[in-house]
């Protein structure tokens, strides 16, 4: 939802008073070259750019990154791109052109790290393997993101985030318990596999840079981030449960298999309330709010193992209670009892939430391509500092001349000649 589409929303809600402080740019002075497309590598580099790194994104001229055409659009531009490409300098470069390889190498010489997410071996076939890249920048930190990783029998298989989510075990778990529905297991609703891999890549890049600073003579870091590995690493106790006990964790719908009650319960107005009263003390509080103080004495609900074993009966009792009250009344009652609970927010709820607004997690940005638009704030926050979204996702090639002139010292005539030859 963009700011002008928000209708009744007061634009002053999104104003953040304060002075932008350069001390909030934790990665100022770090330059990152992104040769990425779709989600994972661009998400990684956006996180780095949000924290002050100078990110230079290389993308195909004219059409650019395919994400520029994804999702809802305005004035011919993807609204998502406004966030996905923010704080980056974008240059259009035809990597198939003979001059492009040298331009990339010249840019690498001026960069601290490189992030890419093509299939394994693709950059090498373009003449941009790790050895060649480090021939011009020996201490370059390189992050390779791919579906299955840079080695192994499945390294060459095609993959997107959803494939990583399936191979990593998440898609199997995002379903209702067996017998409740014959519908396919749902996905999370966003490209969570790509984003998790991007987070790991950003963490890896910063770690590689820290290692380089601490031990300049150490071998530079080449990072191998697989979508499947990244999702698989998030499965909490599922693997040790299988390895030690032979347990194959099963889908549990809105519940978790280790504690109860924790689920989504429908209110009288149709809203879904998330209630997480999954300790003995919280369960007693919940029973008091429901007017069912006898339940903790029931052997089926006396402690957490018992509640997990009888979760179907317990959820039915709670659902019968929530169905008698509006969501707003439930929130008031549960908050007064200090029980973790909330409505399941829509994006409109998020945009209006007083906590998000106070923390600057909803920002009103003037995007030259699409006009006023809302952006999520920067994570992590630097406490006591005002962090800036410097600009929204720029048009394809917006910074080409600037970057080539500033970093490579190219003359306007040379840039014009290469442009005429189809290099960018």
UniProtKB/TrEMBL annotation:
One Pfam family recorded for the sequence: CoA_transf_3
Swiss-Prot/TrEMBL keywords: Transferase
Bilayer-spanning residue ranges: none
Transferase as UniProt keyword: yes
PANTHER family hit by this protein: SUCCINATE--HYDROXYMETHYLGLUTARATE COA-TRANSFERASE (PTHR48207:SF3)
Name of the protein this chain belongs to: Crotonobetainyl-CoA:carnitine CoA-transferase CaiB-like acyl-CoA transferase
UniProt organism field: Labrys monachus
